[in-house]
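note to self — DONT lose this again. spent like an hour looking for the file last time. sequence + predicted structure for the chain T wanted, 305 res
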Amino acid sequence: MHLTRRFVVYRLIAAAALLLVISSCSSTPGKTAVVSQQQQIQGQQQVFTLAEKAERSGFYQLAIDMHKSQLDKYGNSDNSVNGEHRTALFWLYRKNQQFTHAMALLSEAERRLPLSHVMADKQQQELIAQRYNGLMNWRCIRAVSLLDAQSLDDEQANSAAAEQAWLWLDTSPALNNQALQPQFNHCYSLQAHLLTLRGQPDLAQQLYQRLLLGDPEHWPYRYNLALSYLLKQQSDKAQALLLPGCQQSTCALPLRQLLALSYGLQNDQQQALKWLSPLSPAEQQQQLDIYQQFRERLNHAAGSL
């Protein structure tokens, strides 16, 4: 582990530990001071900020533990910060391949309620919005759960699942050029993905561009936009997007692999191998074979239009 990365970890852990110590001292028996709700919310917001930093540094389990500690302690409190922790924890669990834990954050009713029922009940909308930092986040969670049920072998069923997922999201402000709200960024990314599946790559690219403009340092937005270019066989655009911020020594591996794919689509094996250098020779060849198959599929799809 590099010294800088280790320093980031120690700072995050030390800050989290300090918050836990302060929190435990405030609840020690015999203490007469009572922490106000406002102080509680401020403490939760501090933990939320630290968890975000941990996630962005790649320490997903540390971020999960931070969010979970707040929900375990204050989960029944009626405040919006719990919704932020709950929603962030859902996506972190998914990022960490803990899908069962993610869905367990929803109550049985929240997993099954029809959208039409909720949209007709103002009180239900307010309750769900509070629990998930906005009604849109809950709708997004329900949409992605439909996509989770997809099968690699059933294209017709997958298409139907994607259409049902779209119904949960198609009223988002993102689709009528209203300003994006950061707490719904996961939903906007999912919308862009669904737009691609629905054969609307231009709209998907516009949405990815808006997300990247709002948060240029979040490399997954750059990755998704570059991938959308490659799906339209626009390798030059993908390279122009990735190369300026992707020096060989600092580029995240998924971005390197995407750059390699862009050169693979141009049949430039030398440049593709340059960006696959962290991999073993066997892994490099496996990637090149995948790129060849990808290029053939794109060419076949273009020829069938």
